[in-house]
């Protein structure tokens, strides 16, 4: 049974925020301008992004509301009635509520009775897992259609008050992540010009590497407690256990593991790099512009830069939603034609998981 | 000693390309295995101490000093139809055969005892690695040794670009230095071109390509074993 992405949608909250405006929204930590900001922005290349909080730090759109808006946009572009969707598969790094699952909160805003529900847990790659759950449900013919929704609301973690309460400055991600949502409709039959999903694979390496990006561990590395082990949440926050943090030194492993997985897929015969027309990568391509690229080029496994597509620089890095938002804009721009092979690659630094999705653009008959 | 000129753009055959991809994967698998070795985990976690550094050098020294032996033996195993490769391997042995002296001095600067490092026996991992490399080097035209060079040189670069920096940040390092580890960081583009040229020269059959990968995989496994063994005889052999 083949599965097709027949529609996509996205929601980005509020106006684009440029680099000079970030601290107007997120606030100055202890009243001082960041010293790291310009260096990190230069490295990640992001020029504009969106935030779902306003300058007074009030939530304008909840995480679920953004997911619902993207879902509505996706369904509005499809002939499939909302009520007919058989499965709702959702992903987010952290929902508005700790429990229940994010999918329940998204369904509450949609007209989708008795839907089969799935929520995947993780960071950037959780959307790929949500797509795979939907893909497999359609492949075994349990359902005929599935809506995949991924949404992120990380700006709430970046309010200056968070850093002040923790007395620490794990601010790297403050200049990396932003808000938004994306949705894809998967169906068991093609509809118009759409993408057939050829395969989805992922490789996780948490057995080999320590945590790279996390929320829940205190600033003191010797302290093995996690946030719920503290007597009160106030004490957990004061110890830095509610800050989102990234071990920047471990980041280079993401690139290596991204390459390793691709080589493995080549060896398995699933991936033929010479036949790839578009590579959508949830990672800035300049991170791959290193010696490893030369090795790949020499070994016949590199994808020429002209085939890389990203909208991270203008839409921001929206975590698990980024790939969903990226494909939506890619298709709306009309960059692919029937017969084109498209691969999405999602390297997650959390504890190192890399996901790959291979699709082919097809045109349904009639 | 005559080395072939390093061409600027070497086109690899399909077999050499596939072998390079396989070697990359073998390297990544080796790095993941290394990341699970206790002493490397301590280095990554920031809990690595000067004592760890001493033990690391103590356990590396025997393999480093024996390194030039297997390279030299390997050189002598190439026949006249492979004399160009023999020249390259001889150059390699010449370049590295005094590396251990730098390592010993780093050990002494870090507070280690010169007699102790010189009399240290090979640990079980070093014993296995040395034995395997000497056996492989003794085979006729041992092209598979390229796999060993790939892993060991890759590790040299990793030490220079990652480990040395982490070790230098240890607070109680005293007068210790990381010259041995830093030494291998200077590899540049011409170095890569030499590797490509060698790969293209050596990858003439599927069985040789398979041999290169086997040696890379086994050497990676035994190298990791050598580092794992550091924790196994912790009490029997004080570091300094």
Number of DSSP E strands of chain A: 14
- In spatial order, strands of the major sheet of chain A run 5-4-6-7-1-8-14-13-11-12
> The CATH topology of chain B is what?
Heme Oxygenase, Chain A
Number of helices of chain B: 11
When the domains of chain B are counted, the total is: 1
CATH architecture group name of the largest domain in chain A? 3-Layer(aba) Sandwich
CATH topology of the largest domain in chain A: Peroxisomal Thiolase, Chain A, domain 1
Oligomer: heterodimer
What's the number of domains of chain A? 3
The share of residues in extended strands of chain B comes to: under 5%
Q: What is the CATH top level name of chain B?
A: Mainly Alpha
* Helical coverage of chain A, percent range: 25-40%
SSE string of chain A, helices as H and strands as E: EEHHEHEHEHEHEEEHEHEHEHHEE
In CATH's first tier, which class of the largest domain in chain A applies? Alpha Beta
Q: CATH homologous superfamily of chain B, by name?
A: Heme oxygenase-like
Strand proportion of chain A: 15-25%
Structural class, from helix and strand content of chain A? Answer: alpha/beta
Features:
heterodimer; A: 366 residues; alpha/beta; Peroxisomal Thiolase, Chain A, domain 1; 3 domains; ten-stranded mixed β-sheet; two-stranded antiparallel ribbon; 27% helix; 23% strand; globular; B: 240 residues; mainly alpha; Heme Oxygenase, Chain A; disordered N terminus
Give a structural overview.
The complex is a heterodimer of chains A (366) and B (240). Chain A is built from eleven helices and 14 strands. By secondary structure, chain A is α/β, with parallel strands linked by helices. Chain A has three domains: 3-190, Thiolase/Chalcone synthase (Peroxisomal Thiolase, Chain A, domain 1), CATH 3.40.47.10; 195-209 and 248-363, 3-Layer(aba) Sandwich (Peroxisomal Thiolase, Chain A, domain 1), CATH 3.40.47.10; 213-246, no CATH class. In chain A, a hairpin with a 4-residue loop joins strand 13 and strand 14. Chain A starts with a strand and ends with a strand. The mean pLDDT of chain A is 94. Chain B has 240 residues and is mainly alpha-helical. Chain B has a single domain (14-231), classed as Heme oxygenase-like (Heme Oxygenase, Chain A, Up-down Bundle).
